[in-house]
Fold these 3 entries.
Entry 1:
Amino acid sequence: MPSKHARRTGGGIAAPYLFLAPALVLFVVFLALPIAYTIYLSTRRVQRSGLGLGKGSVREVNAGLDNYAAALSDASLWTSWLRVLLYGLIVLVLMLGLALLFALMLDTARVRLARFSRTSIFLPFAVPGVAAGLMWGFLYLPGTTPLKGVDFLSASTVLYSMANVAIWGGTGFNMLVLYTALRAIPQELYEAARMDGASEVRIALQVKIPILMPAIILTTVFSIIATVQVFTEPTVLRPLTNTIPSDFSPLTKIYTDAFVRGDLYSAAATAIVVAGISLVLSFGFLRVVKRQAFGESS
Amino acid sequence: MRTNRLAAAAVLATALAAAGCGASEPTQPAPAAQPQSSAPAAPAAPVKLTYWTWAPNMDKIVKVWNDKNPDIQVTVSKQAGGDDAAAKFLTAAKAGNPPQLVQAEYQHLPSFVAADAVADLSAQAAPVKGEFSEGLWRLVTLGTEGVYGVPQDSGPMMLYYRKDLFEKYGIEVPKTWDDYAAAARKVREQDKNVFLGTFSSKDPGSFAGLSQQAGGQWWSIAGEAWKVAINDQATTKVADYWGKLVDEGAIDDMPYFTPEWNKALNDGKLLTWPSAVWAPGVLEANAPKAKGKWAAAPLPQWSAGENASGFWGGSAVAVSAKATPDEKAGAAAFISWLNTDPEAVQLLVKEAFIYPASTKGTQSLTTPPAYFDTQADFWQQAAQAAATARGFTFGPNVNAAYTAYKDAFDKALANKSSFTGALKTMQDATVADMQKSGFTVAQ
């Protein structure tokens, strides 16, 4: 008996680590190490002697926090943040609003063609971002657009045109998340509400939306992270117009720094700054809404 | 996030390299393995080279070499062209797994050299020096003792124009840029939907070529320091000229190579394109309706009687600094053959549609490109442009300068502000980038 007991305890100690190992190894190799390497790169810079041509004239040296100081004091980075903030605001409000509206409409009892509508709203999400950007680009260009008379790519409209691409592509996915959550709500709640004489609109506003809150918050956090990382739309639309600079969004700036200017070090520092800010934004948002969303359950 | 991904790749590469070292170490003491790999005098295994290029049909040309040289086997890896290809090569070099052979546009070669990513071929490539004009050879030596590649093609600039529409609007082929401006206004007076040309804020290469024609020298070497003079007198003249034309609405400001631009070319809404010798391929693909209606003439000059042109594009083939001595020797032999052997150059012209850098190669061109089949003297025109084209030394951060060009001129067009100001922004950004990267810049 005692020996069996001991063996079980021994196995018990090792087993959790064994089960954790695959996830831990993957986490360390593909997330923790790259992040550590990025942080290391962000504290380095190159030093050149003379013309910087020929063997041995380039050395990598320690830069301390210089790259961070440069990133934080770079006016173009903050301009790009402001741009992305406005862009994010438009996308978040319109995309999530539309997604919620569509989900609620599809969930009402008398809806027709539910399956068809659901698929057609979801379909744009299946179109790759680059293809969507190019397709909209053709629709926006004055020479190829069927909508004459509007300049979609002028300095004052380009941000909205870009937000439109994101909204078009993202609404379907968010709608599906919300719709799935709606389907999980027990029907009895609706019956009770109907018996009390509530209309469909009232049920939607006072029963469905409060229950949906956690799902709405989840989609909001995902969308905040996605808009902070906006990259595809400006990259695809940039060659088509004069109005999108290379540092349009924080990520296009990082890309330009790393792969066009060839300065991996300052790009790494900016990347860490951007990661920090998106962390603050998404966790800040979660903290603000935590009580409303998860108040009852905790 | 991109950086993270790159870092992940680097970490993975390091891990694999470490694993490789670990695996090979135990075999070293075993004497049995040694003689087998090193004893035979003739290399038992052929040298295998990977070649990054975006020239069309290069695999067909390489096959001719591979069939004749069983011990130096080249594999073509097709790349996207332009700035992306340069960025990709620099990243691969930094990550430690670059290809042995790479197509390098002349303006990017200095950044490859500055990153210590390409090998000095002065010993191996010396015999082919005489095959190229002095100007082109300078582009692969950067004015130093080293030789960092073998020239493949060049892009002397000419003025392409619509013969039929010039007749319709009563325009003579402009001899000077003043004539060109007058013609631009004349077109606008007759038809509000048509432009003589457009200024592209997306194509610094084209602007660089026009500045070379005017005598600009953006970078130069002064002792142990770089000099940057992007807003020199000649370039300022070019920028002012185009800025004025755009400002008064005499020419359009849509960028080249956009769907809109293709449509304008195809519909006859754009009458000229100051472009390089490779333009026929672009026109053929984008304006198929206008076949036989375009013609090439020398670029308009800054003053009557002058005769100068510039370069837009063109590239060399370089060898990676990471190549082993065997690979380097094989690579040098291959690129010397590819760019100077008469048979190979013929294939480059026929299959890859390039304007060869080799002097003999250009002399062998007779039949005009299909799209220009009505212009019998097309290649004579090209040869004249090549002979009169001025080049300049490219600096080690052309990518940064070109990005600054796009951003600054985009902004100038959007805000209707002066091109001189945009040029100053480009100059300042280029100098700042060089200083940040640790280059010595003379003031």
Entry 2:
Amino acid sequence: MSDELKVPTMADYMAEGKQPEVLFWVGSAGSFDDRAKKITKAFVKILNKANVDFAVLGTEESCTGDVAKRAGNEFLFQMQALMNIEVLNAYEVKKIVTCDPHSFNCLKNEYPSLGGNYEVVHHTQFIQDLIASGRLEVEGELYKGKRITFHDPCYLGRANNEYDAPRTVLESTKANIVEMKRHKLNALCCGAGGAQMFKEPEKGDMDINVLRTEDALKTKPNIIATGCPYCNTMMTDGIKAKEKEKDVAVLDIAELIANNENL
Amino acid sequence: MQYLPNMIFAIILIIAIGFFVKNVKKLIRNIKLGLDVDVSDNKSQRLRNMTMIAFGQSKMVRRPIAGFLHAIVYVGFIVINIEVIEIIIDGLFGTHRVFAFLGTFYDVLIGSFEVFALLVLVAVIVFWIRRNIIKLKRFWKNEMTSWPKNDANYILYFEMVLMCLFLIMNAVDQTIQIMPGTPENHYVEAGSYPISQFLVPLFQGFNFESAVIVERAAWWLHIVGILIFLNYLYYSKHLHILLAFPNTYFGSLKPKGQVNNLEAVTKEVKMMMDPSVDPFAAAPEGAEEEVPAKFGASDVQDLSWVQLLSAYTCTECGRCTSSCPANLTGKKLSPRKVMMDTRDRLEEVGKNIDANNGVFKDDGKQLLGDYISHEELWACTTCNACVEECPISINPLSIILEMRRYLVMEQSAAPSELNNMMSNIENNGAPWPYNQMDRLNWKNE
């Protein structure tokens, strides 16, 4: 097992007069949600293992405002965005990585016209690059031959056309990747987007996450892989609703890689 | 008297085209009720999108069966319309098969029209079966009330009848062409008839006069039918055959996840955050009194003209609704209904303007509430499945978000859980009630 996590802040770097290679945007879920915090830590372990010079904003980070925007509150979104942009620009941030596709989409597509121009990547893209450039070697065989199905997050997939990075990273574990009938372009939402995460669903016949979990279970998976903290929560709840938590694990791609490498 | 048919034809043609132009003008006026939006950028990319998506049908084939059948009807429609040019010239000048002089090329043309006519007929019959016998789910959702269902079937009947008339016309024509002793042969021997030759036996017993009557009847019904169909477009979902082109051209070029930032809000937020701004300062001399902006949309006039164009373009195929996670789990939301409602309300506003000398008179109704309910809007997960599915670049999500903006920023009418979430963000920078100072605690847990 690894030593203590190294998580320097931008303020630390600034004090030393240095710039990290990338800013890790932890996001509200990654900071506060118990399940998502594990994903955050898994990703940090990967960054530490690959000797990536990264920093977080720590207490200077605030909600991107994405969820407020999707709920219709453009005021609150822009207030959050402009405050964050002030901080990010003050630190002269160039590149941002995040485990949350919603933050990813918002920072990448909606911050530029407000004055925040950064290269923004999703953690699955970042890990893919680490592997491709030889900075991270995936050698473990924990998941070799295991049936893993990947649930595409809407804001990584359809919203930003990234379908390959998560799959390429999964392939590095030599797992048996099985696709759901609805995948990539046709993937079904987990039900959390558009601020649904924070409210009860409207009246209907069933919950969206249960329907999506049924999609996943049809592939007879050992593991459902996710790339979004909200999808993770929704799929985990779906698995509980189907009483399958003993048979099927729901894990983020960062966790899969960290576990695989015994980090 | 010799020119009577030509004159009647010319009059019918002028009336039909005049009426169509009148409706197109109304259509353009209604679309222009929307807010202005700059879509003058990236002309080459836009042209490419239109060529690929509308002309090339690239997104139709994502559902292979419907895509294939649609391609047949689409190509058939374009090809057979070349024949309409000949029909119009013949009608106006009293000629018959004026392009017959093209010889072999003419044979090839008529031959391929016939093949397509048959293929279209078969495709349209399959479409009818899918709708009415197999009852594909997406054609039977709640918003498919009597008119949308009838409209779809009327279009199919129209096409069946037109294709049959075309083939009958050709069948009788070739019978007449080879009749021995046909006096003053107006019916030149021309064309090849790979399909309608099989219908010839039906007319074998006919003498010249009765054959001509049948041929003329089929000819007139065919062209009048086409002109009626042309004028039916405006009242029908079938308008997509024209509007799919501009709609794919003006469709968004941004990543689907990107939602526009409201400039009016930026101005206000920047003022709020700027300590040097004096909120009580008088407006500078000569500055125009600023009209307080309305945030979001409660009615069609608050949407952009591209969104209104999309509403008229929607052909109610329901691919969006059949992939919507909210709709699939029994919620009220249907992206197709959002588009249909927007169009129906826009038509209502247009009629209101017509009835009141060109000015809209408040009718106490609006798109939000009277057509689209809050429940529908709050069921959306913004997953973009509907946007991805639409074969002609319609974006129902953008309308849903504009209406949410109105609900939240103008009416503070968000569900209470969302209000809690938003006040958390306002107070402590996270959607949950945790202190911003605890944001890095995970490191040591």
Entry 3:
Amino acid sequence: MPKAGSLWAYAATRLFLSLPMLLILLTIVFTVLRIVPGDPIAALFAGRAPPDVVAATRHRLGLDLPIWQQYVNYVVQVFTGSLGTSIGASYHGKSVLFIIMDKLPATIELTVGAMLVASIVGLSTGVISGTRRDKPSDIALRLYGTIIFVVPIFWLGQILQLIFAVDLRLFPAQLRFSGGPPPLMITGLYTLDSLLEGNLGSFLVSIWHLVLPSLTLGLVLSGFFTKTVRANLLRTVKADYVEAARARGIPENKIVSRYAFKNALIPVITVLGLQFAILFAGAVLTERTFTWDGMGTLLLTAINEADYPMVEGVIVVYALIIVLVSLVIDVINGLIDPRVRY
Amino acid sequence: METFLKIDDLSVGYWTRRGKVGALVGIRLEMSEGETLGIVGETGCGKSTLGKAILGILPPLTEIQGHIFFRGRDLPRLGLEEYRRLRAKEIALIFQDPMTRLNPLMRIENHFVEEILAHESVSKAEARSRAREALLSMGIHESRIRNYPHEFSGGMRQRIMIALALVLKPSLLIADEPTTSLDVIVESQILEILQDLKRVYHMSLQLITHNMGIVAEICDRVAVLYAGKLVELGSAHDVFHKPLHPYTQGLLASIIHLDTKELHSIEGSPPDLISPPSGCRFHPRCPYAQQICVEKEPPLVEFQKGHLAACHFGDTFL
């Protein structure tokens, strides 16, 4: 591949350029947290501590310093890699980075599961819809795409819980694991860890727990895929090169897969990258609905406790992941589409 | 002996929101093996529809009536798979705009391999070597076979399209305005290639064009289409020297002459094919139109041997 060198240079530039972006994001989050009502000390003691204790704690946590100095301290902590120390009740005094690393695998498992559901459901419905334009199946799937896109995640989650957990008792309604101790912590991903452990039973249990949350988040995202795939397929099945392929006697199934579908996929992959941001937002709601102990639950706790460093830390990690994902998407696009140049 | 290609009372209609568009109406046309037939007319007269109808690649829901006999088989009545096997293998089509006709995500080589494997059971290596041969014969160097379409110029892409059309050695090649989107130098290269096909390989060629100069240069016979109807058919010599239909006369007059520098045009524009004019479809633009032209549709009449025209006054132009 002659462009591999330029690909690395491109990736490095992109990562370098994401630093100022992160700094801007950090500044905004820092500022907003200090504008919105809510005081970490009040949250910590539930307003019941004597004034001298409050003052002492405020001094200990550095919250009595001028705001610019707090800002400088925080930025230094971020860029030295520690992300600061939690000041909330739940994780008081613990390293923010440590807590995030503990919660991140749960969210990764959930979002990967959701992306799988969204891609499989979205791509297949999109292809059916796009190749059977205006037939009943297309109309039904278009309706599905619109409705599922506007359904609130927590509502869909609760409906699925009611049907599959409460009535049919097929899947658990909450938590990442049950019926014994979870797999040994290696990566934190229960599915992967149980496989590394060689324990097929706990692998199945973790998958079993993943089904409903992944389905909830994945289905809501799939509607957007259905529509994007359909719209792009409708465009490419009419493309000149498709007509030319037909004129050369290429079998119809190959025309759909190699000409129409593959070309329709390029913009879909770009959209997929953009969807990751929405995916994380959806994961917060999904985790809450399924008592899933991940980043979303952590973020909600941190916001309730006005745990400034924790909220900032979670958002920085989210932003980093989105930067990385969009970089990966760009690379994938470059590999699929020979016209892309870095 | 059965006719090579016989189009019998072919009508093609597209359905639109406003109604049915009669893109082709009652076309009767024959072509013998080794012949070069020019199909001429303005934009929107049904020329491209004719080519696509022969190949059976009109969009779904298009209404096709009548017969297209190719070596004894009635094409519109072929099964889907049988029709597919005939494309490129027996009848090939080159399109107008080569820039958008190749899959941007596929290497040139794979276009060939895929096509050859779709029609013949040969090994991939064999298909590859035939692809190389086909490209070389069109003057494209072997080293470029693994390039992608966007790495070629328009003229090169059209030569690739021709190579793709010829790699399975079809007996009929339909070229739909193969040079319209190319510059004049590339145009003359492509025309030379087409002439070689005719001279060296005796390929039957159907050349769809609006360029009367190209017709004069390569075609044996000419069919003139106007508003979906065949209005004149004859040898290139006859049609150029004694055009019997006023529309053909108009087309010929609209070629610029270097000595007089005069340029004539046909007044008006082609009619709306959803509700075409009554009688002769050309009457609103015809300088000789009489009452009968409005009322009665002129039949296609053989005014002299092998020279047909659909005009009430054809004999006055003889």
